[in-house]
Design a protein that fits this description.
- The chain has 380 residues and is an alpha/beta fold.
- It folds into two domains: 181 residues, no CATH class; 160 residues, D-Maltodextrin-Binding Protein, domain 2.
- Helix 3 links the parallel strand 1 and strand 2.
């Protein structure tokens, strides 16, 4: 054990004196992380551009009128949406000419189709310059139409259960969130309304035929921000160089004759590679931890979660990188070959791991199955 500690201490002193080790372990990756973070600043919090929606609503159709009312209410959420009401035959022309970025056509008899349960098709056209705000509008329209469909299903189910007109009004009031208060329905009516509403999954927080309401709720996820992903990617790529410098010194020592002299000492032969591995793990863990901590302190919008968990993950990654470098040590015949293989492995794994760009979190099959179409339809 004492011989192992002596070898580890000797290698640590030698590497800490080497300026290239400090450069590749801390200085260069931290500098690149800062540069990339500045270059991509603001990507995590994009600003939505103003968007114009050309909407065709049948005259006198209160259910269809809920769609433009919903879009007009997006201004309260900070989304600048201009609703342009046009005839049905002018929606496509408005989108094609660039007058509107999104076109929405609600068919004739939309309310009647909802009432009898046959459903209706709402056509949504997205222009080339719609951008992210246009996609938000499409999502809101789709959610609004689907919510009205669920509400209509609940009301139809209530009618089939034999509810009278007053009870159906109570059910509509409950679906729109207005069924409470001093002037609300009786307990019997509320019970009947609850039974009818249970026939339509997700009918709560829905829309009444005369208006629209929705709730926006943020859900915390485990995805790193763009800046945090850049810092973690740079730390991961340069980790291979840090660990490689510690492990692959055996080839240099072999060429210089130092390794033969060390093995001639009264120590067990396996202590030499073990000492190199221990040094690699110590240096890799230290450099990666310094990079992650420095990135979270000095760069904007960088956070990695619970540090004890992060430290365990760092040690596991460093151990894996050390094993990869040991494999290169076994395959390479000279220090030059080892350096070349180290560079190829480090850059390849760094690119695949997201050093320079965010890696999709879904498989290629899921990405291919999500097709983007300029013309969509949502069933109500």
């Amino acid at each position: 054990m004492r011989a192992l500690l002596v070898l580890v201490a000797h290698d640590l002193r030698q590497h800490l004196r080497d300026r290239s080790m400090v450069l590749f372990a801390v200085v260069i990756p931290l500098a690149l992380s800062a540069v990339f973070s500045l270059a991509f600043s603001g990507v995590d919090d994009p600003q939505l551009e103003p968007v114009t929606a050309a909407v065709s609503v049948p005259e006198g159709d209160e259910a269809a009128a809920a769609v433009p009312q919903t879009l007009a209410g997006l201004a309260e959420a900070g989304i600048d949406v201009t609703v342009l009401e046009v005839p049905a035959d002018e929606v496509t022309a408005a989108v094609t000419s660039g007058q509107a970025q999104v076109g929405i056509t609600l068919p004739q008899g939309y309310a009647a189709a909802l009432a009898d349960g046959t459903g209706a098709t709402v056509e949504v056209e997205v222009g080339e310059d719609a951008g992210l705000a246009g996609q938000v509008v499409v999502g809101v329209v789709s959610s609004t139409v689907q919510a009205m469909g669920r509400d209509a299903t609940a009301v139809a189910a209530g009618a089939e259960l034999g509810l009278d007109g007053q009870q159906l009004e109570a059910l509509v009031a409950q679906l729109s969130g207005g069924g409470s208060g001093a002037g609300g329905p009786s307990e019997a009516e509320a019970s009947a309304a609850d039974g009818a509403a249970g026939t339509a999954e997700g009918a709560e927080d829905g829309l009444a035929t005369g208006g629209a309401a929705w709730t926006v709720r943020g859900v915390a996820g485990g995805q790193l921000s763009l800046s945090a992903g850049i810092v973690a990617g740079q730390a991961g790529m340069f980790l291979f160089f840090t660990v490689g410098f510690a492990v692959l010194t055996m080839l240099t020592e072999r060429e210089w004759g130092t390794l033969a002299r060390v093995r001639s000492a009264p120590i067990r032969p396996w202590l030499v590679p073990l000492a190199k591995a221990v040094v690699a793990v110590l240096l890799g863990t230290a450099s990666t931890t310094v990079l992650l901590v420095a990135g979270s302190l000095f760069l904007e919008n960088v956070a990695f979660g619970s540090w004890p968990v992060v430290l365990v993950l760092v040690v596991a990654v460093v151990a894996a990188a050390t094993s990869v470098m040991a494999l290169i040590l076994k395959l390479a015949g000279t220090a030059e070959q080892a350096s070349l293989m180290l560079s190829v492995v480090a850059i390849s794994l760094g690119v695949v791991g997201g050093t320079f760009f965010r890696v999709p979190t879904r498989g290629s099959w899921a990405r291919c199955s999500r097709s983007t179409r300029s013309r969509r339809s949502a069933a109500g």
